[in-house]
Amino acid sequence: MKSLNVKILGKEYQIACPSGSEVELKNAANYLDQKMAEIRNNGRIISFEGILVTVAINLSHELLQQNVKQSTEAASLVANLTSLENKLNMVLQNNSLATHTSNSLEFEYNE
Predict the structure, then answer these.
(1) What residues have CB less than 8 Å from 22, skipping those under 6 apart?
(2) How many CB atoms lie within 10 A of CB 45?
(3) Cα separation of 33 and 27, whole Å?
(4) Distance between CA atoms of residues 33 and 55, nearest Å
(5) Dist CA 58 CA 65 (whole Å)
């Protein structure tokens, strides 16, 4: 575990960071700083805690929306794959019947 320094709204924080995750954690801290600066610069919320809570709620909302979107997309993908599988099975079954019928006819014809 490493220690990483990040700056949020001009204040420096030291946080624990798993080895190999420094870049991702730094990017996350920069994103948080950017979102907090947007809220602060908007001027309606002044306190650090108010800005932090507002950003936390906004990010949670975005995450939940993304989860719903991914769930919907996954369900649609499953439905499309199921439909494709059914069509493929029908084609294979029809092909098998045609081959079987064709072989039967040839066999009967050759007798």
Answers:
(1) 2, 4
(2) 16
(3) 10
(4) 10
(5) 11
Q: What are the residues facing 5 on neighbouring strands?
A: 14
Averaged over 48-71, what is the pLDDT? 95
pTM (global) more than 0.85: no
Residue 91 confidence (pLDDT): 87
Lowest pLDDT segment from 33-37, 41-45, 103-107: 103-107
15 and 59 share one domain: no
Residue corresponding to tokens 């064709």: 102
CA 15, chain centre distance (Å): 27
7 token code pair: 């700056």
Q: Is the four-CA dihedral 99, 102, 106, 108 of positive or negative sign? A: positive
Q: What's the average model confidence in pLDDT over 35-42?
A: 94
Domain that holds residue 19: 1-44
**When comparing pLDDT for 97 and 103, which is higher?**
97
Are 76 and 38 in the same domain?
no
